[in-house]
Amino acid sequence: MSFPRATLALLDRAREVDIETRSAKGVTHGVPIWIVVDGDDVFVRTYRGKTSRWYRELLARPGAILADGKRVPVRAERAVDADALRRTSDGYRKKYPKSGSLDSMLRRSVLDTTLRLEPA
Fold first, then answer.
1. Contact criterion met (CB below 8 Å) for 115 and 58
2. Which whole-number Å values give the CA distances from 45 to 19, 26, 48, 116, in the listed order?
3. Which of 40, 45, 72, 73 fits a disulfide with 65 by CB distance 3.0 to 4.6 angstroms?
4. How many domains does the chain have?
5. pLDDT digit of tens for each residue in the chain (120 aa)?
């Protein structure tokens, strides 16, 4: 299942979004992250690796993306195939070329935290 075109456009133009996740105890957390849209696919990745709380919580249960006042319910699946990793890295290079944080999103050690988001 894919996001509606308007949602893809919103996420594509958003410089940063907030990811909202819930712990096993139901506590809601939010943190700003980068997001990449490539065709009908939406990808996120954490520079903190698999220890990142939002990453673990989003894999465990659905969450939401908040962008420009809109809340988009999402669920995540790991996207560790070579094509997804390349597309995500290329998307980060294109969308955030002048950011001092770009290199941290492209390190080999964080590539396997790439997630494909789908509507929840």
1. yes
2. 11, 23, 9, 9
3. 72
4. 1
5. 799 999 999 999 999 999 999 999 999 999 999 999 999 999 999 999 999 999 999 999 999 999 999 999 999 999 999 999 999 999 999 999 999 999 999 999 999 999 999 999
User: What is the domain-level CATH number for residue 112?
Assistant: 2.30.110.10
Amino acid making up residue 83: D
The answer to whether residues 22 and 61 touch, using CB atoms and an 8 Å cutoff, is yes
The 17-22 sheet, strands edge to edge: 28-33, 17-22, 63-67, 70-78, 115-119, 41-44, 36-38
Q: Which residues contact 53 (CB under 8 A, 6 or more apart)?
A: 21, 29, 31
Among 110, 114, 107, 50, residue whose Cα is nearest residue 79? 114
Q: Which domain holds residue 90?
A: 5-119
DSSP H helices in the chain:
5-13, 53-60, 82-95, 102-106
